[in-house]
Design goal:
mainly alpha
Length: 239
């Protein structure tokens, strides 16, 4: 599987369309919004270190093939960017002062990472195309990415609780673009089913749809805030 999303290529040429390209660049935008927030404000308030570690695991297990599978320069560069930036974010949050001092472990401690990693590892053993180390790691990454946002959403809710329901703009923009990238990939799959004979990838589709469903509540309130020109507010935490 050679595309940054985990999608296959045909005869070494990656099949691109506008939805996939938009998805890739929304994913990039989410990363750079996150880095801008952390670096410009010199804090990581509202960001889950657990989610960031899970994304490192997702990218490293998915893109190990960058050492032997060169489908295109675009593909290779994307893999490098996703791995390096995710590792850099974790480094900032764990080791760089004053940023690391603003991380609140007690708020990010609601969902142990192994609750997500172990079930995904088991699922990857059961629902897999064929048994091979690279294929197993790729399949595992698809399942883990579907749920890696959960600690982040829990942290958003914990901070909103303290702020009368309000969510910081940069944090909400980060979460929205991260979820938006997967939404664009659903459109990409629909387009490919309509235009490519025999295209099917049920495991990826189910994981991607689950990932998007997890974001739905957040999407609703984010778009409502955009429409009204206000700040995102989660109503369950009204004063």
């Amino acid at each position: 599987k050679s595309h940054p999303s985990g999608a296959p290529s045909v005869r070494g040429v990656i099949i691109m369309n506008i939805f996939r390209i938009c998805g890739d660049f929304m994913h990039l935008a989410s990363i750079f919004i996150l880095l801008f927030k952390i670096k410009s404000k010199e804090n990581c308030r509202g960001i889950s270190l657990k989610s960031q570690i899970l994304y490192v695991i997702v990218f490293v297990t998915r893109y190990l093939d960058l050492f032997w599978n060169f489908a295109s320069l675009y593909n290779w560069v994307m893999k490098i960017i996703f791995i390096s930036t995710s590792v850099y974010v974790v480094h900032l949050m764990m080791n760089v002062k004053p940023i690391c001092a603003t991380y609140r472990k007690e708020i990010d401690n609601k969902l142990p990472m192994y609750y997500l990693i172990i079930p995904c590892a088991v699922l990857a053993l059961i629902f897999i195309d064929f048994y091979d180390v690279a294929e197993y790691l790729w399949t595992f990454s698809i399942y883990l990415e579907a749920v890696a946002i959960l600690p982040q959403l829990m942290v958003v809710h914990e901070y909103a609780k303290e702020e009368g329901g309000f969510v910081e703009n940069l944090t909400s923009n980060y979460v929205f673009t991260l979820g938006g990238y997967r939404t664009m990939y659903i459109l990409n799959w629909i387009y490919r089913v309509a235009t490519e004979s025999g295209y099917r990838n049920w495991r990826v589709w189910i994981a991607g749809c689950l990932q998007t469903i997890i974001y739905c509540d957040f999407f609703f309130y984010y778009l409502k805030a955009v429409r009204t020109g206000g700040k995102l507010k989660l109503p369950q935490y009204n004063d």
